[in-house]
Amino acid sequence: MLRYLCAGESHGKGLVAIVEGMPSNIPIDINRINEDLKKRQQGYGRGNRMKIEKDKVEIITGVRDGKTLGTPLTIVIKNIDYKNWTNVMGIEKLENQQKKILEPRPGHGDLVGALKYNHKDIRNVIERTSARETAIRTAVGSIAKQLLSKFNIQIISHVLSIGEVKYKFTDKDIFKFKNLIEESCLRCIDTNVEKEMIDEINEAKRKGDSLGGSFEVIVKGVPVGLGSYSHFDRKLDGTLAQGIMSLQGIKAVEIGEGIDGITNPGSKFHDEIQYSIEKGYYRNTNMAGGIEAGVSNGENIIIKGHMKPIPTLTQPLKTVNMFTKEEKEAVVERSDNCAVPSASIVAEGICAFIIAKEMVDKFGGDSIEEMMLNYKSYMNYLRER
Amino acid sequence: MLRYLCAGESHGKGLVAIVEGMPSNIPIDINRINEDLKKRQQGYGRGNRMKIEKDKVEIITGVRDGKTLGTPLTIVIKNIDYKNWTNVMGIEKLENQQKKILEPRPGHGDLVGALKYNHKDIRNVIERTSARETAIRTAVGSIAKQLLSKFNIQIISHVLSIGEVKYKFTDKDIFKFKNLIEESCLRCIDTNVEKEMIDEINEAKRKGDSLGGSFEVIVKGVPVGLGSYSHFDRKLDGTLAQGIMSLQGIKAVEIGEGIDGITNPGSKFHDEIQYSIEKGYYRNTNMAGGIEAGVSNGENIIIKGHMKPIPTLTQPLKTVNMFTKEEKEAVVERSDNCAVPSASIVAEGICAFIIAKEMVDKFGGDSIEEMMLNYKSYMNYLRER
Amino acid sequence: MLRYLCAGESHGKGLVAIVEGMPSNIPIDINRINEDLKKRQQGYGRGNRMKIEKDKVEIITGVRDGKTLGTPLTIVIKNIDYKNWTNVMGIEKLENQQKKILEPRPGHGDLVGALKYNHKDIRNVIERTSARETAIRTAVGSIAKQLLSKFNIQIISHVLSIGEVKYKFTDKDIFKFKNLIEESCLRCIDTNVEKEMIDEINEAKRKGDSLGGSFEVIVKGVPVGLGSYSHFDRKLDGTLAQGIMSLQGIKAVEIGEGIDGITNPGSKFHDEIQYSIEKGYYRNTNMAGGIEAGVSNGENIIIKGHMKPIPTLTQPLKTVNMFTKEEKEAVVERSDNCAVPSASIVAEGICAFIIAKEMVDKFGGDSIEEMMLNYKSYMNYLRER
Amino acid sequence: MLRYLCAGESHGKGLVAIVEGMPSNIPIDINRINEDLKKRQQGYGRGNRMKIEKDKVEIITGVRDGKTLGTPLTIVIKNIDYKNWTNVMGIEKLENQQKKILEPRPGHGDLVGALKYNHKDIRNVIERTSARETAIRTAVGSIAKQLLSKFNIQIISHVLSIGEVKYKFTDKDIFKFKNLIEESCLRCIDTNVEKEMIDEINEAKRKGDSLGGSFEVIVKGVPVGLGSYSHFDRKLDGTLAQGIMSLQGIKAVEIGEGIDGITNPGSKFHDEIQYSIEKGYYRNTNMAGGIEAGVSNGENIIIKGHMKPIPTLTQPLKTVNMFTKEEKEAVVERSDNCAVPSASIVAEGICAFIIAKEMVDKFGGDSIEEMMLNYKSYMNYLRER
Q1: pLDDT by residue (tens digit) across B329-339?
Q2: Over the range B134-153, which residues count as b (16 or more CB within 10 Å of their CB) and which as e?
Q3: Which CATH superfamily includes the segment(s) A3-384?
């Protein structure tokens, strides 16, 4: 079973993850992880911190001579800036009394966190609720992608909307637009729409406001039969929804056609089943987004995430001082005003990990060689059905 | 930790669940479970089977003298009709060769299930992918509600759309419309909209077609601090999304304002924080749907589910015979053409269980008395913050 | 992942388990389960209840036409005697005030259970702490054995000691003594020792006393590589120890030579590694009991359990009335005075389930056919190493 | 729920653990962790590596200003020696072809690991199976102890036997011998026995041989009611057995009187129940080792572990070259010849973590203040029963 735990405060020493259950002998390319980390830091609308700090991953355990050992991997992303924060974020008892953050920002976890964990200084909450945490999830996802690539499973994400600017992508094969997406500062395929989006962001920025938006993750090459209908907690759409919804700022998740699809009557919704000797079973449409009854059906898996606007604004919202109980205006901590492209990269990683976990569950095996033999044996079986 | 496993084939002996981790001494009223089961079977658009079979739960273990023992509960919903299915669904080797189902129905799990589990008879898949399974999840949820009611946590669901007919509910207190909802054959608050929905269903039925739609679950009285931002797999919005998405036919999940909300700029999205001595911290708006940073904030938890049209149609879709590989038309198994109200009841139960699990995690305790003391102690603490 | 939950009170309606994660298409023979249940009920030293009640399992879900469906199995063992207990153990509010059990029996869970779960009637504890619960674990184990038998994995148990009578078994191949063991009323290979054991039991019975003892479970045919050293919670010796120690009355668990072995110096403890073309790697000794570094090494897995004497005595021990706090003598509930052979059968089932879970984890696959292909492919690989 | 993952190769960069689910606001003293690490490295019979390398823990996440944040803790123990191993243990592709280890050592995981994970170089196995991994488990346990100390739960371990030298400790209160134990180079209370043990070790060393032995962990102050009889996987004796058996070299685990106890008849085994107004319920004996029916009963929890002799010998055992299949003599890697005192310290930590997990489960709460209130409320309740 593939599993991981992750940790780290936003201005602490760094972010860490331990990934347990990876088969042995998978080549791990650190550059590919760093590329994903870089993509996460880019995107029009990101603030200054992103420009300063270039995230790099370090592998501490579980890899030797460029390959996984079958033992738990530890990865670390150091906060280069930590040296400037030691008097605030030091592990041991701090010498100087800290100035406490007492005014919770609406839309953040500040208030709930201070109440739940009995924190008198909201700094103790901020440091973990921050989306900085998603850097390590991206890195974990990037390792999962390296497992998936052995099975020709590809994954991509792109932005569908920013604020009120949206467009609908209709081409069946998104992967041929990969370069366009990677070159766009908003991970947007359509350059005209991209321009509108940039204008929207600029306009919001001018007003001291922030924007949300939507993105889509597509996974290609997933074999029929991941997930299961046998027990509700094994359904692949459920676990993907959990993953995406756990991403900071996400308020909605859709599979396949999602909400737009459901206004159709049944006669126009369901993907008819076809067969040819070359392709085996296939469908000409993919309303279902590659998942039926919680099980992958071999078509592209399509999952959409919808992100609320970043809560930190230069136009502050009303709040209350937790010590004096006076009404206050919430402080501004940083200056991103749109993080949708970044979220789409994290979401890629989240989906990659979930699919990798399902692959490990279905095909078993302790080395990549053993897992591959099992996979091939199953693919042969499928061809004969 | 509260957990459960469930089981059962659609035309088998019955559905079963074992629920482990319930505190002791909680009064269990079987009638309340049966009421939820009845609600699940109702709703305009359900077919004939629902009219024949009245689900009743039987408790086998974990309850004595009307109270939980702190030991695992087993609940069973017998299939009254099983006696007519023994020659098809018998547990032991069947005497007569069965007529196999060979043509997978689009939109169902038929094809993926037959391939994943190497079934030559699609009957083996149908029996578990069927939404009949949700009866037992409803019953488990109904037991969870009886735990929640000790803490004055209430839960309700209502239908927001059927096919293209939708409406937006705006009143802040849904619970005062409880009677209206329970009396409506579509769990719809607005009787005019309900009429349109009925027309839509009738029209679809006339055409041999089916409809999907949307529903909303609202949970009131949830204390601040369920879920956690500390680790991504503990975020309450994530676990709720997993639960709802695991329900048959669901293709999208939203928290709070969801997709409609995200087109707003940040200045119009986030719920400002207020304080009064009587109420403590509160908000005048609830765009967030009661969850910030994966943690409950004391406002109503609001979650929406979007259900695709039922795949079984009287106008069949194209498919392929898995034995001969000939193109075929998918068979029709039953005659529901809309199951959204039913899904909304199941979703209530799913949410109830997840919230109950979080309550048990946060407040600990092995008896309801111990749990209640811990809860009260925390509520006192909150009042002093 | 193979998992299960189980439930049931000793004098309630029955015992239930739901087993999730079994591959499809495994033939299930109910008679074999019932045979294990019968063995559990036998053994010299068992009391009268065992003679009255013949446990039979009923499968409710997850099996059709004699084969697993890949869906969760539910199994039930009804308490035939429940009809005489409805006024004591009824699920719904009991009409008549019950006579409460107020005096906890030493050596049982009575006192800790009443305190933990806030029970005023110790009956509420007794009903679940009773070893009656092990009947369902035996049945689950018996299903696991049917999976294992597809891979030629055999399992056997025998009794090593009763009270102070013990003997040491030295022959390398226990399985050739299978008939002797199954025919012995104490699961004892040596008929002379068996006689001494019977005398010991008779003598204890005469004094109103009870006896414990030791047993051994041996599993043959386990492939190299189950369990893992990669993370401590995956070590096979650890999970087996957890399983055996969770059995009622067990106070010690040993792997291989166990405590007797550790007084040896290293030069006389470790099993030297040999190789031949026919056998591959093998060892001439098996001090390690088939597990090195938490991983199966292909030799027989050997695990010993040590069971304390049954706490219920006809010579009662001192206790306290929980209501009056007066010193009392503990009551006698039943008349077994030795249950070691029975425990050894339950332990077989516990080990079988754990090994089956590890097989499913390592070889993956959703049908037995797929799992078997993966297994064979691995066995081929082993031959080439 | 308290949980952790750990990682690290013996000669890699270091050992790491992430601990998730610790309540907030627990003071963490790094020195106390380092003291446990130091104790683990001591003990008569340890080899040279232990003398060179002084383990120190670094906390990376989850602690600020000397207190837990309620977020995951990361702890790291760096391998100071790693700089000398980069050409062997480097993460990225190594420049020079490595000399492979091809001859598996009997008694180690070398052979099973190479086969399971398809490793051609046994170095890939050795690095994780090594008992070096237990340093991080000790550190995790040491953090758990700091939680437990808030509830006055104390934990101690001492050595019961080395090779054939053993003694039986009979005094009821081990904690008054704490200083004696900590000052003994073998964690042995009796200085005469200690001398015999040293002689035994010296004699074995002279012969190039190694020794095993036994230790005992005692936990004092555990409240009644941890663990549960409700479901077999929650029994406290089972989870403790799993923990201890997962420790390198352990081949047997006992609770309370264990194997020695079970030869007693029931009339002499079970701990009679007493009551006084001052103490509440108590027992004058503790054969059960503080656990009845899988639940703590308030008496000291006593658990024994039995460790096989260290497999690495200067008198090598027979093995086979995995490449040539020639018979060989196993190589010697390091020079510990007895590690029982060290194992006893690791076992303390393992037990501490398990008890801490149970405390968190029973008392809930997200901050230590909340958890403490719940604990006190339960202790009050106990006094009234």
Answers
A1: 987 765 688 99
A2: bbbbbbbbbbbbbbbbbbeb
A3: Chorismate synthase AroC (3.60.150.10)
